[in-house]
User: Fold these one by one.
Assistant:
Number 1:
Amino acid sequence: MVRERTGLRERKKQATREALRSAALRLALERGPENVRVDDIAEAAGVSPRTYNNYFSSREQAIVAAVTADRASRVARAVADRPPGTGLADAVVDAVVEVHTDPPETGRDAMLLITTSPALRSAYVEDATSMEDALADAIVERCGDVDRTTARVLAAGVAAATRVALQEWLGAAGASPSGGLVVPTGSLPELLRTALAPLRPALDAADPRGRDQRAV
């Protein structure tokens, strides 16, 4: 009975989170993100502003979450789905590139919105760290004998490298303070692979298949 109540509570929390991020994105697309208040999002989702604050710390975080909500789980699944003979470095790099360069169809308009707002660009880049826990789980599952601490360190490194690549791609460092459209520069797959390249030795060192190949 306790487990059923816990499961119901978690489902309700997830439903509330989904309602908030969907409302945030819809209102931002309709009005422009600068014209959306937290109170507006809460009202559209049918909750109180206090409840909103239990899930998101800003309107930008909620808007971006509508695009990145399943990014962590998609990366983890992509790592797990790589063929058994694929080394960890190839599995992780390919998964990160695949997920970040093939957004869901519903996210296309949202990504265009994100490029027009410095605050949304910043929130989008920072959200890259949300993949850490799910990726660490995928690394442990794939490698078998890697300890959790090592997996977390590797996942944190991947998330940080991904954040750097996204920041460069969106041109965040040179973004116009006026909030004009920032045209992404360079090839995102290439930027991701370049940023992740220094982590390849560490990823392969944690993978028994990588160690075996080096020993041959």
Number 2:
Amino acid sequence: MIEKNLIKRIITSFVLISILFSMYISSMMMILAAIVISALSFYEFNRLIVKILKNTFLKFLSSGVILLYLFLFVFIIFWIESVKVENPNYKLFFFYAIFVSIGSDLGGYIFGNIFKGKKLTKISPNKTISGVIGAFIFSILIIPIFYNDLKFININLLFLATILISTISQFGDLSISFLKRLAKVKDTGNIFPGHGGVLDRIDGMLFAAPVGLFLLDYISIIK
């Protein structure tokens, strides 16, 4: 079972990486992917909130206010920063943050299933301390892959930024896991057969990618 789920997770990661590559080389693909991913994320998030909030009036509020919040957090932030993404350094670091998030997710899953150990939190019973360690290790392993292109950042600052991005990504994962627990559902959707919805796969990225861009601002200031 673990091997089967790991294969699915790796395949999904490769699909996401392929989409990211097409987004990196084509502005049109970036726009289309951002719109589609945002729309699907909004839809899945709203379904979770509706399941959590049984009251009809609260359902009405959730479908408006919560979606507006997500829109502001994901979509507007993305397009405000899109001016900076036209700068090669910002664009590269934006995608670097996403790859760190992917590495964090894979590392957490692999280490968590191999070493198991103490549970991290009741919010997500499958999350373990060993998984957190694995997430950080796999995130750090992304550094040498990108380092030649990220030489405009001091290696010590890049290391600290990577740890922070991984931490934010794991927080995003836990946040969606918390909502799924409240909604009493296993997955946010079924767009990936047998492997969940869009939010199940990009929960960490939704938090990590905007943080990555803001971090580059801060790094640029303190250099």
Number 3:
Amino acid sequence: MKALRKMNIMGDWRTRLFTFACALAASAPAMAQPVIQSISGSRQAGTEMVSIELSEPLKQIPAGFLVQTPPRIAIDLPETSNAFAQRRLQLSSGAAKSVNTVESGGRTRVVVDLAKNAQYRTQAVGNTLVLTLDPKSATNNAVAVSAIDFKRGDN
């Protein structure tokens, strides 16, 4: 009787362990998140690019914003971690001077420090997020206003 009871306890323990291992294995792909592996700057045919290589493709193009003073581009990569040992990476591509990466709260923010204001566009190419910089378009953002006549009156 004791041997049978001991066997049931061992069998129950093994069943629980097997069930837990199967559940863990099934949820592993869902828990995996992209990891930033490298960042580089380049120039191709007069176009400047910053490439952010990840361990796997992003689910969607991340949101970003421009800062005018000092000129910067900030990109937030949700559910992404950072494999860099250093926070700051110097670039020599021209418009992009350096890149800072900071991981916090389940996301990584990538900040590209610019030599001068520039517009940018992002696109995903496989496991790489590419920022294409356009410093020329940043100077064309001003809207010319002319021939406005202001008069004071009752209305």
